[in-house]
Amino acid sequence: MKNLFLIALLIFIIGCNFELTVPLNDDPIINKCFEDNEIKDLVQILEFFENQITISSDSKNIVDSYELFFRNLESEMKYDKIDLNISFNEELRLWNPKEKYKN
Fold it and tell me: Cα 16 to the chain's mean position, in Å?
């Protein structure tokens, strides 16, 4: 459970930090650690995650969406239950590029 929280926190920090400063693919540290195709995948994962939490929060503001996401995550962890409110079908499309073009 703590690992999931740490991963989500990392996504939040990366998302907020890079949205306000440098795009992920222009960051020198990211470019040093990842290949171009890996960076494209990271950008796609980050955009997917932010899109999903924005949809579930009914807010256009990404910071508000992250705050709500973490409040919900924290309250669910108290009950050993985690529901991220992320569409499983959309997630499958993220991992299976052929599915992206199906309706």
Answer: 11
Q: What is the pTM of this model?
A: 0.63
Q: Which of 69, 72, 44 is nearest to 61 (CA)?
A: 69
Domain count along the chain: 1
Half-sphere exposure of 22 (CA within 13 A, CB side): 8
Q: Which domain holds residue 95?
A: 2-101
For the chain, the first-to-last Cα distance in angstroms comes to 34
Quick one: tokens of 66? 């992250």
Q: Using alpha carbons, select from 4, 3, 11 the residue that is nearest to residue 62.
A: 11
Counting as low any pLDDT under 50, the low residues of the chain are: 18-20, 100-101, 103
State the pLDDT at residue 20: 47
